[in-house]
Amino acid sequence: MFELHPQLDKDCITVGDFPLCRLLLSNDSHYPWFVLVPRREGVTEVFELDEADQLQLQRESIHLSRVIYDAFDADKLNVAALGNMVSQLHVHHIVRYRNDAAWPAPVWGKFPATRYDSAAVQAVLEPLREALSHGFKFAESIL
C-alpha cells in the first residue's frame, strides 16, 4: 500500500493525483516547486518501476513540465530525482527565473523555506486548474 514519506508529507501540500503519481506543491513560496511521487510501495529508483509505470511517469512529468513552464512563464525548469534525503522515488519540478533568490545556483539549502498561506496556495494552483483537468484529480482539501 502506497504511503507518502513523512518528510514529503511535512514539507509539501498534496495537490492531487495523476493516474500514477501524487502531485505535491513544495511548501516553499520562493519558487513554484512541484513534486511527482509514483504511488508505488517501496520504490526508490525509476528502474524499479515496471515498464508501463516508467512510461507513465515520463508522460506525467513531461505534461506537468509543459503546464508549469507555461503557467508560470518560466525562464528555466529544473527537473530532478535526487533522493539523498528522502529515498522514496519523487521527481522535483522547479520553475526558475533569472531573478529568483537562488539563481543560478540550485535551490536546495539556499534559503529557509517560506511557507504558503492558504490564499497563496490557491493563487499558485489557479493557473493549473484548467490545464490539469484531463486525467488529473485535485485533492478535496485543495478545492
From TrEMBL:
<dbReference type="GO" id="GO:0016787">
    <property type="term" value="F:hydrolase activity"/>
</dbReference>
<keyword id="KW-0378">Hydrolase</keyword>
<dbReference type="InterPro" id="IPR036265">
    <property type="entry name" value="HIT-like_sf"/>
</dbReference>
<feature type="domain" description="HIT">
    <location>
        <begin position="1"/>
        <end position="103"/>
    </location>
</feature>
<protein>
    <submittedName>
        <fullName>Diadenosine tetraphosphate (Ap4A) hydrolase</fullName>
    </submittedName>
</protein>
<dbReference type="InterPro" id="IPR026026">
    <property type="entry name" value="HIT_Hint"/>
</dbReference>
<dbReference type="Pfam" id="PF01230">
    <property type="entry name" value="HIT"/>
</dbReference>
<dbReference type="InterPro" id="IPR011146">
    <property type="entry name" value="HIT-like"/>
</dbReference>
